[in-house]
Amino acid sequence: MLNKLMPVLFIVSLQSAFATEGYNAGGDFDLDFSLNGNGNTLFAPFASLGTGQVMAGMDFDGDSLFEILFSVYESNDSSGSFSGKVGCYLYEANSSGGYNYVWHFSTSSADSLPGIFYGDMDADSLYEIYFGVSPLVVQGSVTNSWGTHIFEQNAAKTFISTPTLVYQYGRTSADNFNPAGYELADLDGDGKVELCTVDPGSGELSIDALATTGLDGSSSFTNEYLDTLDGSAVYNLDVLDFDVDGKHELWVERNLNMIVLEACQADSYRVAVALDLDDTNGAYKRNGLGFADADGDGDLDAWFPMSNGKLYYMNNSVNDIDSLTLGANEVTNSGFENGTSGWAFDSEASINFDVVATETFAGDSSLKVSGLSPQEPINPEEPEAFGAVANIVNTTVFAPGSQFVISAEFFTSSSDSLNQLGSYGALFAMYGGGNLDSMDFVSFKNATTDTWHHLEVLCTVPANASIVNVGVMYVQPSDTSLGSFYVDDVHLKAVSEGGVDLLAEKHFTEVLTFGAASSGSDIGDIDGDNKMDIIAGTGAGEKIVRMEFMGGDPTAAGNYSVNPILESIGAPADWYFPLDISDNDLDGDGELEVVITNRNASEATQAMILVLDYDPPFTFDRTGQKNSEHLAPNWSIAATATGHNSRTAIGGMDMDNDGAQEVIAVDYDGNKVVVYEYDAANKVFDLVWSSPAVATNNYGYQPQIVGVGDLDSDGRQEIIFPSSQSDAEGYHIYEWDGVTSSDSYGTTFSAVCQVEVDTCCAGDGAGTESYGSVFRGDHHRMTIFDIDNDGRQELITFPSKGDPRGTLIVSLNDGQNIVHNSASSSE
Fold it and tell me: Of 153, 299, 321, 346, which alpha carbon lies 20 to 30 A from 555's?
C-alpha cells in the first residue's frame, strides 16, 4: 500500500485576512488581472462560460511581450456536463499591467473539455498551437469538426483563423477519440518530434510523427504507438529521462495510476511501469507532471497534488545502487592476487604502480599508487593524471545506453597521506569512439587515513561509444602534492534490472492535506529561492493554496509552508480549474505569475482567467539595489546592510515630507542609527542617512532604541536615541533641516538631552571624568508623547543604571528651540 504519514490537515482560510467579497489575494501575491467574458463580444457565442486549461509565459512572436493561451467551453454547473461550444484564446501582455486579445478559434460544439498545447513539431522556427476537439455525436451523426486542430504561424508570426491541419489519427467519429492531453518531444531519439495524445475517457494513447518534411494542409502522420491504458480521466502527460539512461520516457498519469513508456529504439516503445495506486483520485494538472530534484541528490522526484486534496511525494531512488540487480564481476584479477595481470598502466608512470601486501582489503595483495616526482614543475591549471586500466572479460554488455556499476576499496596511510596539497585518486569509466571523449568517475579525496573506503558509481554508456575503459587514476596538481593510496577489490557489474522499471508503490508517500478537493495545480520556484512551490486549487472550495517545500525530508508535512494565496468570498460560487505558473515574467516586474482558470465564469461578477503576481515584501539595501539576504522567506534583514546587532526598527513616518516613508534601525556597528526611505519605483528601501559613528563610548552594545518626535514643536521632526558617547552622554537629538526630500538630519547632533545623566549618573559633576561614566545608553524603552496635553511633547525614559532609577519625564525649556546640526546649541 502507499506510504502514509500521520494525517495532517491544514485548515486554510483567508476570511480573517480578507474582509471583502469577490477575489482576494494574499500570501505575497497580488491579483494583477482578471478577464471577465460576460458582455464581451469575443465570448458572445457561448451561452455559458468556463475555462479549462491555461498555458502562460510564451513569446510566440518574439516581441518580448508574453502570452497566455487558454481554452473556453460552455459549462453546465448543475449537471457537470461539458458539452457545448469550445474555443481557444490567446492574449498578450501589453507592458502596462494588462493583457490584449490576439487570436482565437472556436467550434460550434464538442462533447468534452478541450486540450491545448504548443510547440514546433516540424522545427521550422514557427510555432504551432494544438487544440483538441472531441466528436459530438447526435442521433448517430457527427455534428462537428473533431480532432486535433493544428494552427501554425505564418511568416509574420501570427496565427490565422482556420487550422493548418486537422489530424484525426486515422480514426472515424465512431471511435469517439477525444484528444485532450498532449506532449511534444523526440521520444525515440530519431530526430523527429512525436505528438503524444491521450483520450481521457477511454485512456487511449497515440504516439505519432510527421511522415512529411514540413507541416501544411497536406501533411500526413505515421503512428508509432497506439494502445488503451487502464483507467479513465487521463489528462496528464510528461516526457523526461527519469533514470538518466539516455532514453526518454513518456509518463501517463491516470488518477494516481502510473504508466511509463520508454523508447526501445526508433518508433518502438515498451511499457516499463504500470502501477495501480489509486483508482479514484488523480492529479488533474494538464501541463505535465510535477518533477523536481526535491532532495538535492541529483535526480528528479515528483509531487502530486491529488483531486481529493492530498499531496503525494514520489521519491526517485530507482538508480540507488542498492536497488539495482547486478550481474557478475567483469574485472579479471580484481584483487591483484595475480600481480598486474589483466591491468595496463600509463607507460610514463608505470613505476608509480606497485602490487603490495602491506595494506589489503581482501586477499593478500592490493595496488599501491604513488605520486610523480617530475623533472619539470607541474602547472596547477593542467594537473598530471595517470591511471591503471582493467581488462574487461565481456565487452558486449556495454553497448550504448547500457548501465553498469563500478566499485573499489580505497585506502591512504597517515605515514604517506594522499591529502597533500590537492592530490586525489579516482575510480573511473572512460568512453571513446568517434568524437566522443567522456567519463563517469567518483573521487577519493580528503579521506580519513588508515581505514578502507568503499567507492562506487553508476555508469551509463553514452551514444556512439565504441570503447569503454574502467580503472583507477591518480590526479596530481603540482610537483609537491604527493602521497599515495591503495586500491583493492575492483568490481564492474552490468545492471540486469534497474532504472525506471524499479518504480514501485513504495516510492509514493502521502504527505499532507491541503483541501477537501483539487482540480488543478502546478509546480515551480515562484520566488526564486531554490525551494519548490506547489500551487494547487481547491476546486469548488474556492481557494488557491501555496505549499512551499522548505527543505529537509520531503515526506514530512512539517517541512512545508502552506498558505492560501487566493480566495473567492461571497456568491456566486467559483470553481478553480487547472492553473499554470508562467514560464516567464508576464508583466516585466521581475516576478513570475500564477494564471488560474475558472470552471464557473458565467455570472456577471465571475472571472474566466485570474492572474496572480508574486509581489514579495520590501527589501532593504544600502546601495538602492535589491538585497538578496533574507531572514525568512520573503522578509529582508534591515540592519545588516550597514552593520550588525540591530535591536529596534521603527517605520511608517515621513520625516522630510516628500511622500516616501522611512524606516529607522539602530546599529551597534559604530553605535549609530540608520534611516532607510522607500523607493516606490524599485520597491526597495534605500539608505538615505546615518548618524555619525562614535569613536569612543562607555558601553559598546548601544543604542538599542530610537524614537521620532518634535520636542520643540517647530514642525521639524527629530530622531532621538540614547548614546554613551564619551563627553556627550545622554539622548542625542538630530533635527531635520526643513528642506523637503533632503533626508538631512545633520552631520552632528542638534542637541544632547542630559537630564537623565544629571539625575542618575552625574558622578562628581559636569566637566569631571566621572560625569556620565555609568550611563550606558543601552535602554530598552522610551516614549515621546504629549502626556499632559500642553501642546509640547515630552521625552519619557526609564533609567535602569545608576541611582535613582525609575521613570523620568523631560520636556524642552520654555522658549528654547532645537537647531539643526548645531552640536547642542539652542535658541
Answer: 321
Question: In 10 A of CB 539, how many CB atoms?
Answer: 21
Q: Is 788 left (phi over 0), alpha (psi -120 to 50) or beta?
A: alpha
- Taking all residues of the chain, what is their mean pLDDT, rounded to a whole number? 85
Q: What is the predicted pLDDT for the residue at 387?
A: 86
HSE-up (13 A, CA, CB side) for residue 157: 7
User: Rounded distance, CA 183 to CA 178, Å?
Assistant: 15
Sheet holding 782-785, edge to edge: 782-785, 794-797, 808-810
Mean pLDDT of 382-407: 78
Tell me, what amino acid is at 434?
G
| Amino acid at position 118, single letter | Y
| CA distance linking residue 542 with residue 447, whole number of Å | 56
All cell numbers assigned to 699: 558601553
Question: What is the domain partition of the chain in residue ranges?
Answer: 22-48+284-318+498-617, 325-495, 646-810
C-alpha span between 707 and 664 (Å, rounded): 9
Buried residues in 307-321 as b, exposed as e (16+ CB within 10 A): bebbbbbbbbbbbee
Mean local confidence (pLDDT), 180-199: 94
Strand 310-314, strand 325-329: pairing: unpaired
Residue pair 301/319 in contact (Cβ under 8 Å)? The answer is: no
Distance (Å, rounded) from C-alpha 402 to C-alpha 647?
A: 61
Q: Across residues 422-427, what is the average pLDDT?
A: 90
Residue with cell 603540482: 478
Summarize pLDDT for 692-746 with one digit per residue, the tens.
988 888 887 788 899 999 999 999 999 999 999 988 999 999 999 999 999 999 9
Percentage of the chain with pLDDT > 70?
A: 88
State the residue for C-alpha cell 595483495: 365
Pairing of strands 234-240, 249-254: antiparallel
Smallest CA-to-CA distance from 370 within 389, 349, 340, 398 is with 349
134: nearest Cα among 93, 181, 98: 181
**What's residue 464's pLDDT?**
78
Burial annotation 744-756 (CB, 10 A radius, 16+ → b, else e): bbbeebbbbbbeb
Grouping H, G, I as helix, E, B as strand and the rest as coil, residue 450 is coil
pLDDT of residue 434: 60
Beta-sheet pairing, 3-4 with 508-513: parallel
The pLDDT of residue 5 is 42
**Collapsed DSSP state (helix, strand, coil) of residue 540:** helix
pLDDT, one tens digit per residue, over 632-666 is 455 555 434 444 567 788 988 999 999 888 999 88
Q: Is residue 354 exposed (0-12), middle (13-18) or buried (19+ Cβ within 10 Å)?
A: middle
- Please check whether the domain covering 325-495 is classified as CATH 2.60.120.260: yes
User: Measured between alpha carbons, how far is 479 from 446 in angstroms, rounded to an integer?
Assistant: 18
Q: In the sheet where 301-305 sits, what is the strand order?
A: 3-4, 508-513, 310-314, 301-305, 290-292
Cα–Cα distance for residue pair 690/694, rounded to 1 Å: 12
